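User: Hey, quick favor. My workstation is busy. Could you predict this chain's structure for me?
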Amino acid sequence: MTATHHQHPDHIRIAQVGQAVGRLLDAIAASADYQRDGIVTYQSAPNGRWQAGTHTCGTGTINTARSGGFVTIQVTGRTTQGLALTQAGLRLARARQARRLVKVLEGEVTTLAAITAHPRQDQCKTVTVEATVIALEEKESDKTGKLWAILTLEDAGATGDAWIHSRGYERLKGTFTAGDRVRVTAPLQWKPSGRLVLHVQGFRKVDA
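Assistant: No problem, here it is.
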């Protein structure tokens, strides 16, 4: 997750990499597995490609990212490999994300009521929501022991959960509390129960 500031997006400096490498870094950084455990497992896919979630890329893209010093590769089997960002890769992914999120956080805001009125629609679509934190529950990762948090958000009678994974929660812990008005940017996810979950990518308190 990237902490976002009021910096014009055109002023965020980003190293030049190919589009495929950039998308790989973006996908790893945005992965809930990476935010929770620091690694993303890619499975072999047809035609020499690799896949994790909805992201696919070629072996050449992974090797280019590794040779450029942006990722490390942990081979976990003949058909799987674990990818992690180096410090350079993480900085680049955060800069790319910050440029996008500055535009989104300062752009159009939707409501929980509008989203929950059409459950299970727009799965994985990234939205920005302004709502009130009505509950905060800290969790401990089974793999890393680090804390992450589930926020219950409410606005105009509609509710949803916002998950802040450990890498983001380390920076945000103590900066907000129940009752605060916040603005969250996240892709939509619907649980089988129909509950809305937002895996937080951008987060800031709304000025009183």
